[in-house]
Amino acid sequence: MSNEINPYESSKTAIKPIPDPSLVPTSAWYSGITSYQWLVLTIASLGWVFDVFEGQILLSSEKQMLSDLLPPGTGEGAKDYYKYLALASFLVGGAVGGVFFGALADRIGRVRTMVITILMYSLFTCLTAFAQSWSHVVALRFLVALGTGGEWAVASALVAEVFPPKARAWSGAIFHGSSIFGTYLAIAAGMYIVPTLGWQRAFIIGALPALLTLWVRWQIREPDQWLANRATAAAAPQSVVAQLAALFAPGIAFKTILGFSLAVIGLATYWGVHIHGKELTFRRARAEIERRENLSANATPAERAEFSKQHEAELKHPEMLGMLLAATGGGLGLFAFGPICERLGRRNAFILFHLGGFAMAVLIFQTYTYWSPAVLWVLLMLFGFWTLGMHAGYAIYFPELFPTRIRSLGAGFCFNCGRIAAAVVLILNAFVRQYNVPLETVGTALSFLFLIGALIACFGPETKGTTLAS
Known about the structure:
Elements: H1 11-14, H2 35-69, H3 76-108, H4 110-128, H5 134-162, H6 168-177, H7 179-197, H8 199-204, H9 212-219, H10 224-235, H11 240-246, H12 253-272, H13 277-292, H14 301-310, H15 312-344, H16 346-367, H17 373-388, H18 392-401, H19 407-434, H20 439-447, H21 449-457
Helix pairs in contact: 2-5, 2-6, 2-7, 2-9, 3-4, 3-5, 3-19, 4-5, 4-9, 5-18, 5-19, 6-15, 6-18, 7-15, 12-18, 12-19, 12-21, 13-15, 15-16, 15-17, 16-17, 16-20, 16-21, 18-19
């Protein structure tokens, strides 16, 4: 008999699951994993790779897009304002897509829903290439995110249901860690396609993931656990409202709020802290060029913006280098989170990474101008490792918190609704940046969110070694 807690017991009892001794791994986590399970992990990871590419391509081409779609002479603070509006739209779209498609996957199945989400984000990323104004970009970012938010919710539940308990932490970390390759693709597009062929061509590439859906339909079948639960799910209320209400039932509500809170911190710090790693190398390089060419210290924001446009090609390499270093460190952190949480437990791993993220973010924002380039590169990788690594925990931890009938919805709700709070942070950030408050000040202030995340993690249930609730 499973030792999983009845979801309708009191929340106090529900947050203290008792591990099943029979599930404690006695061999390597990958021993006994079938070729089909590896195939599921590969396809889910590829979906997430392209998912991340669709989100990151805006960051790797933003300066060229803003120059083309905004009036000439728009200052840096105003450009940041428009950029943050597009990012906020993307976050809100991800929240809506995560809830809607998460609920849909619990009703009609993981495979069909994954196909729909991949087609959606592929189509609207491609259409962004034809945007004629920044308002078009903002609207299309929302539509792209409907698909990306839904794809993560479906894929994370699929991986958790297909892999055995001893391999869940590792497979979840590999799945979420694969996002680094999506960032690499976006960086490559930013370095080699945007400067030569234009940002439009980079977005047209976004249509290619649609081909993945053929492989999904051909090779992937619904998880046995979802099929076994389908009869129960069919008898239950089917409206999205009823499914959402189930997330706040006794014994489950605490877990929903906990997961949502962790995601709020992780996504707010990702979009408010982590993504600015590339700005640090860009700003260093721009300052050196300004000194070299004796740009007046009294230059207006519009004059500085025009100066940056004139040196756009020269500044693109250091900008993408910073993005590459932070992303590489972040990828290592994502892959490391699995074995770390398998050793320390889910809760302690989250605490460790939040504390590390706070320390590294404050250090780099306050001191990056003082280091040699080589030291800064190392610090950027460490910065990426600690500020991003805990995101792999969402793919591991969130599916473990919910029963099968609401697993995809629950994981999707926690991860993607956290984007709404992150969007609020971005909008506030946008208004602050309009008044030219230094990026270093804003980044340092937002870094304190990591401390709140560490505190939240202290209250989380430990799910290491427990069975998934049916």
